[in-house]
Amino acid sequence: MEEDLQREFDRVVAAEQRIEPRDWMPDGYRKTLIRQVAQHAHSEIIGMQPEGNWISRAPTLRRKAILLAKVQDEAGHGLYLYAATETLGADREDLTTKLIEGRQKYSSIFNYPTLSFADVGVIGWLVDGAAICNQVPLCRTSYGPYARAMIRICKEESFHQRQGYELLMTMMRGTEAQRRMVQASVDRWWWPSLMMFGPPDKDSSNTEQSMAWRIKRHTNDELRQRFVDMTGPQADKLGVTLPDPLLAWNSSRGHYDFGEIDWDEFWQVVGGSGPCNAARVAHRRAAHDNGAWVREAAAAYASKQES
Ligand code: FAQ
User: Fold this and answer.
1) CA 1–ligand 1 middle distance (angstroms)
2) pLDDT at residue 1 tops 90
3) pLDDT band for position 194 (cuts 50, 70, 90)
4) Residues 269-288: pLDDT tens digits?
5) Which of 152, 207, 211, 215 is the most buried (most CB within 10 A)?
6) Can you give the pLDDT at residue 130?
């Protein structure tokens, strides 16, 4: 019986069809999806903090409106993704508890500080750019609710990337001090952006199985290379220098070569010792605690409706 179910699951995955919530699925597939999608949802929610830091200090009304809308989109992405985990049987309260107790991960990138308004542009260009590179293939992931959430998320992410690039273009046309601010920001965010794609394939514990299940459609190194290839010409057009002396177009490979990533730094940040890990989690915990009365009121209202 279980063998028949497994055969049908394998057939659906191999045929590029979607596994849906009521379908049978191996336990490991369910667990891997809950892990990845929850981590992705947490990243969107924690990812509101670095840019949220600049909402009250945006230089113009237009920039403030754009930034507010972007940060709200990220909250929305977190919510679609938590909803996708619920279709797998996860409990959102439990996932939030795991996040604020440090038992579940979120993307390393959000543990770096935003020191100037240029960081808002660079996050849009590089961080949303890397997120898009990673997430467009996830529109074809094998689990239906995740794939469908990714379609909408990617549409919004591409606006996020464009607003960042447009902000940087504007600053680069400004004063010498603004150009220096953009370059300093690129210097700080370039390497952490490359780390977003995860460890090198040889050290990636989950990739092989996730590719076999067609949860992941490309390896970490493939997507990282795609991002570098996409970003090199954009940096030239913008007039900034990516902080890697080894970055160079390799015509025989048809790709950019680039330098070695500091994997010690990556594992430190993933392990909780990055520059802002403690502050990010403390802020999320405080927001959760401060929202307790809203949850209690909603629950009281719901039980009144039932009675
Ligand atoms: N940070 O075996 P792999 C965004 C962990 S959303 C922290 O290669 P996998 C939007 C990994 O969990 C950004 N931990 O893992 C936005 C695993 O540990 P575990 C988030 C990381 O899952 C923009 C271990 O290392 N995007 O930016 C990281 O096959 C602007 C071994 O790694 C997603 O989550 C990392 N960077 O591949 C919002 C996309 N990398 O769990 C606001 C969906 C790896 O076994 C502002 N996720 N680890 O204990 C994915 O595509 C995959 O999960 C990867 C990692 C590629 C991130």
Assistant:
1) 35
2) no
3) very high
4) 999 999 999 999 999 999 99
5) 215
6) 98
Which residue from 138, 141, 205 has its CB within 8 A of the most atoms of ligand 1, so it is best to mutate?
Answer: 205
pLDDT value of position 307: 83
The predicted model gives 215-236 an average pLDDT of 98
**pLDDT tens-place string over residues 110-142:** 999 999 999 999 999 999 999 999 999 999 999
At 26 the three-state DSSP class reads coil
Residue type, 61: L
Q: Show the ligand 1 pocket: residues with CB < 6 angstroms.
A: 35-36, 39-40, 43-44, 47, 74, 105, 107-108, 123, 127-128, 131, 134, 195-199, 204-207, 210, 216, 220, 270
Instruction: Please report which residue ranges of the chain form alpha helices under DSSP H.
Output: 2-14, 27-46, 48-52, 61-86, 92-100, 118-122, 128-135, 144-172, 176-195, 207-212, 220-238, 263-268, 277-290, 292-306
Closest ligand 1 atom to the C-alpha of 210? 29
Q: How far is the CA of 53 from the centre of ligand 1 (A)?
A: 23
Cβ neighbours around 238 below 10 Å, total: 20
d(CA 154, CA 156): 5
Residue 137 DSSP class = G
Which residue's CA is the closest to the ligand 1 atom numbered 8? 204
- Mean pLDDT, the chain, rounded, equals 97
The model's pLDDT over 232-255, given as tens digits with 9 standing for 90+, comes to 999 999 999 999 999 999 999 999
Residue 113 three-state SS? coil
Tell me the residue ranges of DSSP E strands in the chain. 248-250, 255-257
E-assigned strand segments in 80-224: none
Question: What is the Å distance from ligand 1's center to 194 Cα?
Answer: 12
Closest CA to 201 of 254, 252, 263: 263
Pocket mutation for ligand 1, best pick of 107, 165, 197 (most atoms within 8 Å of C-beta): 107
Please give the structure tokens belonging to residue 72.
Answer: 């709200």
